[in-house]
Write a structure and sequence with these properties.
This protein has 388 residues and is mostly helical. The chain folds into two domains: 178 residues, Helix Hairpins (Orthogonal Bundle); 123 residues, Arc Repressor Mutant, subunit A, CATH 1.10.10.2520. It has ten helices and three strands. The chain has a three-stranded antiparallel β-sheet. Helix 2 runs antiparallel to helix 4 and helix 5 packs across helix 6. It is rod-shaped. The chain starts with 6 loop residues before the first helix and ends with a strand. The relative contact order is 0.14.
Length: 388
Amino acid sequence: MGRIMSAGKRLAACGLVIGMTAGLSLSAYALTTKEKLDQAQQEREQTKGQLDQTQENISGLQSELGTLQGKLNHLNDQLTEVSDRLAVLEGQISDKEQEIDETQAALEEAKENADRQYEAMKRRIQYMYERGDDYALLEGMLGADSVSDMLNYYDFVDAISAYDEQQLEDFRNIRDEIDQKEKELQKERAELSEYKIQVEAEQSKVSGYISATSGDIAQSAGELSNAQAEAEAYEARIKQQDKDIAALKKKLAEEIAMSQLSKQSAKRDISEITFAEEDRYLLANLIYCEAGGEPYAGQLAVGAVVINRLLSSVYPNTMTGVIYQKSQFSPVGSGRLAIALAEDRATPACYQAADEAMSGVSNVGDCVYFRTPIEGLTGISIGGHIFY
């Protein structure tokens, strides 16, 4: 099947590759695993940063909640003080209204007494008028039994007149005093009512602050709850990432060991391999999936890597075994190879590369790994891959 590269040439090529990759003992897949490990560690650091930021937010929210709660407590104290003042005011207003009622009742009584006294005086005056002042006085004096009685009667009439006038004056004074007191009480009640309105406005204002602060507390508490849930999610993610990183480290160690073992393993000659027709079909389609868009040299290089593995005692000894070995070729795991096989997407160039590789032709020496270039990786660069 085409020409076969001599053992000397293959060893020389392999020596070149080994020289180019000195200090690099990772396989293509191992390096892929290393890259995955690096990515996983970077993602873990990102998650840790997000967790730190979230925990900082939690600390800030807790501090804010403490401040808001202190503000709410202060406002509640204010509301209690205002409510107490309002209760006192309402009691004072109630007492003042009772005083006003009592004063009004006293005023009415004073007016009634004054009216009664006034009516009595009017009746006496009318009586004296109807009889005539002089006649009534003369009749009273003439009817006296003695001069002393006559003088006493005169004094009595004069006293009655003075008494009526004094009573009327007293009642007027009492009525004026009560009326003045009622006005003062009405004024005091108006002042208390005005002050009550101010205190009620203050109460309403404080209640509004309490409502707003309670709303802020509820909002901050909700944000805190969300942040705590977010932190728990980050912690769970970090825990899973730590498990993934540990698994990748373990896998990487296994692959490094596999790479070292491959270098030390015995190699078969291409003449010892018997290929079936389906091997050609399988290899051509794998080449299509891995390097279908690459130059022909890149397609041949992929085919040579597969054959080099087939020749190594470290890898399976069949084409199917090599290609379908777990976690080795990404088109297998992604399902792209299955689709290509189902539709035979391999191009004539892919079949040509498969034929040459199966005949022992290799443009990458004994390289058994390839991948897209990454920093620090050296080897044979063909198309979009590094072979080593």
